[in-house]
Amino acid sequence: MSLLLCSLGASCAPSQDFDKHLRTITKPYRFSITKWELHALGEEVSKAFDDGHKGTDDGIREVTEYFSNVEQIRRLRSEIEAIQAGSRQGDLASLETELSRLQLQNTAVVDTIEKLLETRIRETLSQQGIFNPINKYTGFKFGFPPVNFKIERPPHLLVVSPRDRIESIREVTLLPDMAVEDMESIEDKIDRLGVSSLVLRVGGLATYPSFVTDKGDLRFTLSAATEEWLHQYLFFKPLGFRYMLDVTGICRNYEIATMNETLAGIVSKEIGAIIYESHYAPTETDNAKSPETGAGFDFNQEMREIRRAVDSYLARGEIEQAEEFMEQKRQYLATKGYHIRKLNQAYFAFYGTYADSPTSISPIGVEMKKLRSQSASLKDFLETVAAMTSRQDLADTVLSIR
To answer: Per the count of CB atoms within 10 A, which of 26, 27, 149, 341 is most buried?
Structure first.
C-alpha cells in the first residue's frame, strides 16, 4: 500500500464539514507516520555502526526458525483466546509462558531477519535487472530506493466509501493497538455521516522504512516487503506520479490506483516466489492451514459473484438491499470457514484496487496478467506499465499484442 495513501489521503475532502467530523471522531486514535519514520530512521542510523548480523553466512537457519516461531506464536494465541473464552480447556499459564518465550526470542533477532531478507530482495531485484527508477535512461546499476523495512505490527487503516458506489474517498492511519470495540465505535460514528467505513489491519505500508506485519509467514513477508519497495520505486514513474495525484485528491482516478496496486502486487509475488524457491522452500515447514471449506466451495468465485451483485444493487439505487445482501453473505462465508468482520462498500473499495484479487471485477487484472505473459522479462513488464499514464494506455498495449 502506498505511503501517500495513508499520509495524505485524508486531506482531499468532498466537504470541509465532513472532514471536520472525521477528524473529531478519529483524533484519539490517529497514528503519526512522520513520527514513526523519524524514530525508525534514527534506529537504522545507530544500527549502521554495528558489525552486522550475528547469524550464519546465508542466514537460512535463522530465517526459517524465526518464521517457525511466528507460526507457533499464532497457534498459541489462538489456544489462549479459546481457553479465555471458555470454548476449550488447557493449561493457560503454561501456554502464556511459552508464548512469552517465543516472542522474546523473535524480538531479539528481528533486526537480523530484516537485514537478511533485505539482502535477498535486493539481490533478486538486481538479478532481474530492476535497480532504480532512472536506470532505463542512465544505465546506472545502483539500488534506489534502498530496500529497507521493519517487521512489526502495522497501524490500522480506516477506509471510507460512499454508500451508493464502491470507491475509496478517505484513508486514515490509526493506532496499531486497538480493540474491536474501538474499531466498531469509530465505524458506527462515521457511518452516521452517511457513508460506509471500515477499520482494518493492513499487511504493509510503503512508509520509509516500510511497515511489514509481524504476523505473516515467510512467503507473505517476502512479497509484502517487495511490494512496499515497488510503491516507493513507482513514485518516481509516470504511473506512480498519477497515483499520487489520485490519493491526494488533485486528480482522482480509481483505475490508475487499481493499475498501480495490481502492478506492484504481480511483480512482488513473482520476486517473492523466486526468493522463496531459491533459498527457503527445501527447509521451511509450512504449517499454515487453509480454512475448512465445504466440498466444491470456491471462495474467489464467491467473492466475485458477491461483488457483481452488490454493484448491480447500487446501480439500481438499492443501497439498503445491497447492505442486507452483504451481511447475509458475510454470515454465509463464516459457515465456510472465512470469517470477515464486516463486509460493506468500504471493504470492496479497499480490496478492489487489487485487480488480481477475488474482490475485484475489474478487467485490469486479466489485462495485466496477459501483458506479463507476453513480456520478455519481469523488468520489461514493470517498465512498460510504470510508463503508462491512463487506463487506455493499458488497453491499447494489450490490444496491440493480440
So the answer is: 149
Distance between CA atoms of 130 and 279, rounded to whole angstroms? 20
Q: What is the pLDDT of residues 185-215, one digit of tens each?
A: 999 999 999 999 999 988 888 888 899 999 9
For residue 40, CA distances in Å to 91, 103, 107 come to 38, 20, 15
Q: How far apart are CA 259 and CA 241, in angstroms?
A: 12
205 beta partners:
211
Comparing CA positions, the residue from 170, 218, 232 lying closest to residue 20 is: 170
What is the CA 217 to chain-centroid distance, rounded? 14
Cell triple for 60: 537460512
pLDDT in tens, 31-51: 988 888 888 777 766 665 554
Count CA atoms within 13 Å of residue 68 on its CB side.
10
| 206 DSSP 8-state letter | B
Q: Model's pTM, two decimal places?
A: 0.83
Q: Can you tell me which residue has the cell 509484502?
A: 224
Listed residue (387, 356, 383, 388) closest to 369, CA to CA:
356
C-alpha cell at 381: 513488464
Task: Specify whether the CB–CB gap between 206 and 232 falls below 8 A.
Answer: yes
